[in-house]
Structure formats: C-alpha cells, structure tokens
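Sanity check

After download, print the first record. It should look like this:
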Amino acid sequence: MPVTFTAVGDVMLDLGLTSGSEPHDAVIQSTVGGTAVNAAVWAAEAGAEATCVGRVGIDAGALAVRGALAARGVAAALAADPGERTGAVAFVDGDLLVDRGANRRLSPADLRALDADAVLVSGYVLLHEDSGPAGRAALRGGARWTGVTAGSVDLVRRRGLAALVGARVLVANAAEARALTGAEPEEAVRALAGAHELACVTLGPDGALLAHGGDLFRATSPSIAGLAHGGAGDAFAATLLVALAAGAAPADALETACRAGSAAAGSADGWP
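Expected structure tokens:
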C-alpha cells in the first residue's frame, strides 16, 4: 500500500512577467502553486497517495488549481469560499506581492484527509493568526508523521519557536533557523531537534542537515543549474515526510529529500 500524505497550506496562483519591457509587448505567465499544492505534487511524485487541503475562491483560479492537481494525480480537498478570491502571488519589478485571498479564512472545519500516514502543515498557515487554528488542528489530526515548514523569516521572528511546537518534524532554511535560534545551521538544527523529534535545516545548493536522537546527518544536493525556484523547500519537506512514513532511516530520507529539492529548484515551474 502506498503512503498516504496530506499537505495543508496556501493554495495560490503564481503570476510573473517572464519577458518584455514594453506595455504592449510583455509575456505574463500564470502557474499554479502555493505550499500545499507544491508539497502534494512532490509527495505524489515520491509515490504517495497525496491530498491537497486548502481554501480557494469560486473563480477561474480555483478551476486552474483543481485541474492542475487532477493532472498530477493529487486529490483536491479544497473548501470553496464564495466571498474571497483564490490566493495569488505576483512578481512585479522584482518585488513579490502576495494576495492571500481565501487562504486567510482556512478553518478547522475545512480540514479533511488528516488520518493520513503523513501530514505536512505550512508555516504560512500555522503562523498567521487568521489561519493558525486550522494549522494547529491539522497537527492534532492523528497522523503517524506530522511535519511543519517554518514559512518565512518574518513570520518566525514575530511568532517564535513555540508557535511551531506540535509536529514531529520541523523543516527550516538557514535564515529561518537563525531567526528561530540565533545560531548558525549546525548548532541551530540541534537546538530545533530539542523541540521536535527530528529537525532539518536546508542549505540550498549545499544540501541539508538533519538532527535526530542526538545524531547529526548531512546530505549534499545534486548539482543543477539555476538553483533558485521557491518550490524547492516544499519538495524537500514533502519527500522527506513520505520517505520517513515509508520506513526510511533518517539519513536515507534526508538524501532522498535533497534530490527532490534540487530537482524542484532546477525545474521551470518547481514541479516534477
């Protein structure tokens, strides 16, 4: 039987200017993304029976999200909000603009498929006050493996490590780990493992660290040109949880997750 995996997090449309500088000569690309979507897609790629849990509007964006998930074999457990837009992020003149839209109204009543082998909760849900109750409810859902991603440096600085407690696994990048602990990666991952059964600190092209039961493991990332896509962390976290739920040793799960993160970083859209 395949591992069952549920991702709880933001569901977004990604809008970006890909080429052109004149008002009537631009190429604007629209793709489907968000933490829950990205993680569920990579969990499916890892062989899991994956479900994406989130909240969307009743609009064209929601149709795009549902269609993209179906094409990847991911179940869409998405609450439809008639009063909000599907969330979106836009890249304008090098700046990232975020419209959380329906994501801000995710509630415990929207949660489904939490009896999975592994549940990954995005820090973007858990650390925002509006959607925080849903994130905490997801971590109490009874999964054998529960994980949380830190979300962003700004969020963890405002809320602190205590807001992330409740998951067996914590995944943070080096900047987020530094904001949480005040320490550099190796010391930080050990400190984070004191509050969680297992902690990872990702290091981009330099791989990742994992602390578990007093042991420290390091894995390198395969060399891929253009390591820059924001979906790499979602791919890493989802693949790590799937591997752990399937019975992999922590060191082996870490290596598998690094390969997935690199593949996402080198992909045009962050997906397999």
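If your output differs, re-run the checksum step. Summary of this record's structure: Residues 243 and 253 are 5 Å apart (CA to CA).
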